[in-house]
């Protein structure tokens, strides 16, 4: 019996000794298909970043910590924030809403093009790119090394947004402490748009326009020409909200919380309050580029001052 125990011990020890820690440091492919009426919406993960807590305004540190603790969102790296984009397939053509950061924000981002292909689509089949606004984490993904990532696509942004970043006269309206960041963004915007402008594949839209069944919604504040897009199918609606929200904890529990890179903080807060009220009242779907991947879900109204993010229920089968 003693010999048997020793033998078993040696066998178990040898099994343990042969076990190696997994070497993979990345997760499975960052895409998720969601069937929305007659459309298939594929959420695409560009990557994850961590925002410094002091970027969020109108809350003191104790208030921030209390909310983050409530949502188990305390992280020594900062406030975890996804960067997402959304590919919409209507069965005839592909429309991309926002495009990620490519190489503009470092190696932690830049996976949109790769994840489109992993999801089973071809970059050349994307016919339309709708940009909620022209910050680098939304526009840089359309170009790489001076070439169009989506060679057959027409890129759209609001005319007011294009004017703010592309018209040299706009620099005069930028506060001195924001000018360096503004000029850096201008450089990124021009680089991203250049291959499309060269072939006249960059166009602007106006308030009230409809592009490929997407209704344009004025949600200015984060930037002067920031817009969201509403898509309808059967009795459902989904709003591609853009950057009206950057935190699933702070800005839902305290929606009057601003963020440092809002161009007009008061306007951005009013837009968020208006949109949260409308979306929760009408039970519309939301697709958000900075809420936890896949960034699709609903807004629940807790009370007159607070909301809650309700993510979609993950399903391993795509409905048709």
Automatic annotation (TrEMBL):
> What residue stretch is flagged as signal peptide?
1-20
What's the protein here called?
MBL fold metallo-hydrolase
PANTHER family (UniProt xref): QUORUM-QUENCHING LACTONASE YTNP-RELATED, QUORUM-QUENCHING LACTONASE YTNP-RELATED-RELATED
> Molecular function terms in GO for this entry?
hydrolase activity; metal ion binding
| Keyword hit for Acyltransferase | no
Species per Swiss-Prot/TrEMBL record: Acinetobacter lactucae
Asked whether the UniProt record includes Signal among its keywords, one would answer yes
Family classification: Belongs to the metallo-beta-lactamase superfamily.
User: Which ranges carry the Metallo-beta-lactamase domain?
Assistant: 82-290
Q: What is the lineage of its organism?
A: Bacteria, Pseudomonadati, Pseudomonadota, Gammaproteobacteria, Moraxellales
Q: Superkingdom of the source?
A: Bacteria
Keyword annotations for this protein, in alphabetical order, are: Hydrolase, Metal-binding, Signal, Zinc
Q: Which SMART domains match?
A: Lactamase_B
Which InterPro entries does the record associate with it? MBL_superfamily_lactonases, Metallo-B-lactamas, RibonucZ/Hydroxyglut_hydro
Pfam families from the entry?
Answer: Lactamase_B
